[in-house]
Amino acid sequence: MTTPGVDGAVREKPPLAEHRLHPVTPLRRAWAPVAVLIGWAVHDPDQAQRQLTRLTSTTLVIALAVLVPAAALYGFLTWWFTHFAVTDSELRIRTGLLFRRTAHIRLERIQAVDITQPLLARVAGVAKLKLDVIGTDKKDELAFLGADQARALRAELLARAAGFAPETAHEVGEAPARQLMRTPPLDLAISVLLTGATWGSLAAALVVPPLLWFATHSVWTVLATGLPLLGAAGASSVGRFVGEYDWTVGESPDGLRIDHGLLDRTHETVPPGRVQTVRIVEPLLWRRRGWVRVELDVAGSSNSVLVPVAPREIAESVIARVLPGVRVSEAASLSRPPRRAGRCMPLWWRGYGIAVTDTVFATRHGLLRRSLALVPHAKVQSVRLAQGPWKRLWGLADVHVDTGANKTVTARLRDAEEAAELLRGQAERSRTGRRDALPDRWMVS
Amino acid sequence: METGSARDAGTAGDETAGPVWSGLPPGLLRMRRLLLVVWLGLIAVAIGLLLGLLAGPVWAGFALLPLALMAWGWVLLGRNWRSWRYAERADDLLLSRGVLWREETVVPYGRMQLVEVTSGPVERHFGLASVQLHTAAAATDATIPGLDPAEAERLRDRLTELGEARSAGL
């Protein structure tokens, strides 16, 4: 696996231990030509049939004899030319056969580390590893590594990012994790059933195709709309259950561990102090059971769920771990907009509210599906006050707080004076909040 | 605690009597008005000529429409230009703009990822340049248009310098 680094040309640098990906990697794109063929056959069935009848066994054999080695060679070469190496401060990925591409990902900038194992990869015992840094995309993931190798690499990357001495970084090993919560499958199933979107998409999938059938009597139209609707219904119910099955949140010195999935397993690690926003969502039907869903925003990361469903107290204890020093109950005592806000937003203005504590800026919106967003002062990128003509008339204004995860949290319909005060105060708070935030290398203090 | 830190910032000088606002140089207004007059003037002439020749001289009165628009735009541009102002405080940049849709933005220096000075061909001809601030949030829309190039460069250098001194991770 390990090849000696380039040492002839560059004398002064110590040779870098470069690694290759797992040897099953070339197989991961094996399905692509097949998919193209199927796509073509579905797109143009008549043509496909005509071509199929023309095929004789000899042409088939010749095609196979050319295509299979060519695909194998391509897969092998891309694998052969993909290297990665871990230096003291960077993860370097070197890839490309014709178009060379080198990515240097700075470790102190990592926002999260994900290890994902799709079902087939689990069977093969391999995993994908991705470093979430702002600006990284799908090309920057290491797919695939051996499952154990991926775990060891994650531990090493986190240790280096945390600031452990370079010599000991790969011996530190996995930081011990302590489980904070785990979602029971029954709760998850009930919570999916109690979500309006599940029933809405199911109803749409059952109602729309028959209506279309009566209107057009065309099988293709019905299929073309019915199948996506069914797919959406499946994704919002079964898909969500499968994806969020066995959701475990753990805590370790390396940060937050989130593991989930029934078929595809995902293990995510969010280092301390990377969370930009936390949202507590409370759908109408969950309220009687006292359940909430907690979402979080990490810059550059795609996952946004922290807790799919949990009783409020457990969710709040998890949040207290994610945002140290935040007491949700304190942030949840909100002040409403003034009564005249009803002139700008009838009825819904009652759902709005804000609270400012020592550590977070909290706003709530939504009447039926309440959503409380918490932004730590240290994560505020900019503060904006906006006021349109109609709001000016009623002496109201909105305050937008922008965070690093490209999300904006808005305090809507505040009194204009209060909004101006909020703007000034928030700028001040975010400055002082930043001063005592954790350093990027969280183990060095 | 809040007032204490505000006083801290006050030592830098410009906090004692509120922020010191600076407006935009008149060059931007001149450029925008000129562009307005040129374009709407051309449209008015085109409409007047076309309708006058094809439909009759009475119809050429429609050419007054762009002219009215021009007068309205002239006033509007002036009000909009006057509404733009910015202030460099000890720790953040204030930006205020808009007449009907007012917006006020505060960007702390430590959050700036990139400061950009841009100048298109028309702007260059009028000796103008824009300064744009980028933070990690794309929603931060902090652009100061139509500055004097020397002022734009001074602002860029000062913002970069302050940003480095106060920089913080994400």
From TrEMBL, chain A:
The chain crosses the membrane at residues 60-82. Residues 426-439 have a biased composition (Basic and acidic residues). Residues 79-156, 253-319, 349-423 form the YdbS-like PH domain. Keywords: Membrane, Transmembrane, Transmembrane helix. The keyword Cell division does not apply. The keyword Transmembrane helix applies. InterPro entries: UCP026631, YdbS-like_PH. It comes from the Bacteria. Residues 424-445 are annotated as: Disordered. This is Membrane protein. It comes from Streptomyces pseudovenezuelae.
From TrEMBL, chain B:
It comes from the Bacteria. Keywords: Membrane, Transmembrane, Transmembrane helix. This is Membrane protein YdbS with pleckstrin-like domain. The lineage of its organism: Bacteria, Bacillati, Actinomycetota, Actinomycetes, Kitasatosporales. The chain crosses the membrane at residues 34-53, 59-77. The keyword Transmembrane helix applies. Residues 81-159 form the YdbS-like PH domain. It holds the Pfam family bPH_2.
